Amino acid sequence: MTATSNAPVLAASNVTMVFGGLTALKDVNIELHEGQILGLIGPNGAGKTTFFNCLTGLYTPTRGSVRLKGRTLPSDPAQVTVAGVARTFQNIRLFPSMTALENVLVGRHSRMKQGPIASLFHGPSFKKGEADARTRCLELLDFVGLSGLDDELARNLPYGDQRRLEIARALATDPAVLLLDEPTAGMNPQETEAARQLILSIRELGIAVVVIEHDTKFIFSLCDHVSVLVQGELLVEGSPEVVRGDPRVIEAYLGKPPEEVQAEVDAYAAESSAERTSIIEPIRDRRPNEGGQQ
Amino acid sequence: MATLLQQLINGLVLGGLIALIALGYTMVYGIIQLINFAHGEVFMVGGFASLATYSYFIPESWRSDWWVALPLMALGGALVAVILAVIMERFAYRPLRNAPRLAPLITALGVSVVLKEAVRLFYPGATAPVPFPRVFVDEQYTFEIFDGTITIGSTAILMIAVSVIGAVVLQTYITKSRMGRAMRATAQDPDTARLMGVNPNRTIVLTFVIGAALAGIAGVLYGIQITNVDTEVGFLYGIFAFTAAVLGGVGSIKGAVIGGFAIGLIKSLAGQYFPGGTQYDLVWIFVLLIVVLVFRPQGLFGEPERVRA
Q1: Whole-model pTM?
Q2: Which end of chain A is more exposed for a tag (fewer CB within 10 A), N or C?
Q3: Superfamily per CATH, domain A1-84+175-287
Q4: Which one-letter DSSP state was computed for residue A67?
Q5: Cα B125 from Cα B148, distance rounded (Å)
Q6: B6: which residues sit within 8 A by CB, 6+ positions away?
Q7: Chain B residues with CB inside 8 Å of A106's CB?
């Protein structure tokens, strides 16, 4: 997939983030084009989530700038969402006591117009706006594969469904850029494959996607472009093939000889095309949360 | 039998009033975990403001028509209460949004003292209870039942009706509207709500506004039922309403209403039947509260507090 237009949707230039004496990010540059899937990988504590927080307005970079469609990102996260950046979270953050549909409707909030007074009197325009939003949100639930679960409380959904619901909620904000923070963490191979298909179909909608993931097989088989963050600095970037073969990446992040990684990737590619039913996966290390970066 | 029915009615009337005030407590607590001790005073100010509307703004010729005078008074009371709540939120609570919980709590107590003393000092004649006009139709309906008679005043019916309608409208608003969803989302996880495009400040102000409007209306109803207002009532009814909110489960609309009616009923029934009579009716309210909290610390309809991951 090559970018169709030259102007990037999202451009981070020389983003530097300093917390006290700690430089969490140093001169990170990223360009994201419409319909592109960008993978962001790196060891724990490399600054991936910090970078996401800079892209969503939670942090204002110490130096450097983030521009969305040529405009500098507002500093208020609610305004960033209105401008067109949506995200999901490393540790799921749904509204547990609201139904699946209501969660998605909250995502729709900034695209609806009804003020507090209009809602009180339930006029025709209020009813129409509310009905349109419901229709749209039900479509999104359907899109992520949760049709029929709209009345279920978010906290009662299975883990994989909760992750998908987060994606539906983010899509409800009509984003130009979707940021996914470890969308397959804790998923089994089938769920991971479903997530891959879902992200590919999100790309079809013309939305640019940034994915943080530790699962390198997943990243290499999904992304058009991969950036490797190590200790807050962009170490390598390029197509999956380039990044996969780069010895610095292997040394800093993968810690395995390239043949082994290659074998894993090939195996994954073979598995994804065939039915993957009874493969006993090695137990992946459960990654501890990157403390203090949320 | 007639006595029991009469006490049930009295209890419901008192309960309706308490429920209206408790809604404000429970909503504000639900969204920012602040027990707004000044909310009782907002109710009291609503009462005085509606009295001021009557005395200074409604022309003599309109005063006898209750369907003109009463809505105007309710509007005046609610409006002043809302303005007060917005100012309170902006200047007393918002700067302390990220402070330890104790700081806004103590601020709320301070605001409550300031409001009470301000009204006492500046409202003409407010050092003693001020008579409240009998604006609403002043009918007493008497029924012969079994072994006696029961009476229901027209204001009593109005009070119960307004509180029930108020609670139903509010519940619908919270569950079915865009801003209502924003309020619930902010209550559950303010940071995530913000990242989904919900403006937290606007949502929190709206919560204060709704609570204050209901308290202001409760102020008018109190006035026409009791026929006077007093600067002390804010504290007393504030405590009742706070207890009702805790009993029903802070944060729950249904809980606040049921808690309010439960307290009203306990107070009137205990005053009639329990040892000690009316002198001890407050004791039974708190006995009920303690018993409920022992078995359900989160209140009747509250959700157990979860530690956020």
Answers
A1: 0.85
A2: N
A3: P-loop containing nucleotide triphosphate hydrolases (3.40.50.300)
A4: E
A5: 41
A6: B150, B151
A7: 181-182, 185, 193, 196, 198
**What span, in angstroms and rounded, lies between the C-alpha atoms of B76 and B86?**
15
Q: Which residue of B has its CA nearest to A55?
A: B195
Chain B residues inside the 8 Å CB shell of A96: 188, 306
- The shortest CB-CB distance from A87 to any of B182, B195, B199 is to B195
* pLDDT single digits (tens) B248-298: 998 888 999 999 999 999 999 999 998 888 888 889 999 998 999 899 988
Report how many Cβ contacts below 8 Å link chain A to chain B: 87
CA dist A279 and A281 (Å) reads 6
Asked whether the beta carbons of residue B199 and residue A78 sit closer than 8 angstroms, the reply is yes
Cβ contact (<8 Å) for A120 and B173?
yes
Tokens linked to A55: 């892209």
CB-CB neighbors (< 8 A) of A155 in chain B: none
CB contact under 8 A, B198 and A110: yes
Asked whether the predicted pLDDT for residue B189 surpasses 70, the reply is yes
Q: Which of A57, A145, A154 minimizes the C-alpha distance to A105?
A: A154
d(CA B175, CA A119): 11
Using the structure block, give the residue that is written with the tokens 């300031």. B114
Tell which CATH architecture fits domain B2-295. Answer: Orthogonal Bundle (1.10)
